[in-house]
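Notes from the 1:1 (GR / supervisor)

We went over the backlog. Supervisor wanted to see one worked example end to end before approving the batch request, so GR pasted a single chain during the call. The sequence is below; no edits were made to it. Supervisor asked that the structure be written out right there so they could see what the output format looks like.
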Amino acid sequence: MSVRILILITLFGFFRSEPALAQVVFSKSNYDSLRLDAIQNKKLLFVDFTAVWCRPCLEMDQKTFVDESLGTYINHQFATLKTDIDHPEGDSLRKQFTVFQYPTILILNPYTEEVVLRLIGFKPAGILFDDLKAMRRPEGYPEL
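Structure output shown during the call:
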């Protein structure tokens, strides 16, 4: 193999854009499975209600959920679900939790499904991070 090819391979690996490792990772599970997982792992549920046609929802994906500090915190503290309100499960959850504005983020107690925090509209990473930290007591919420 020539030196030029090795250099090109090395440069390609160096300049290739990798997704942020600490961005918010949303579960591929359905709500019921994620709720059981949250109970087992003693985490709150973080449910993001979104739609493909919702511009502020897209901004949350592009600007907020890619923030490293926020991603690290959310991935550690919460069981996360992104649900599209135009799909059957998302529509069912939207009705169950009375969600009519998008994006809406609900923080739920997985034991009782009580809404602990409801955030509506676009939130920059810093504001969302502060809201989430202010909501959590050091000992957890409530029996978690």
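Supervisor's comment: The longest strand covers residues 44-50.
Batch request approved.
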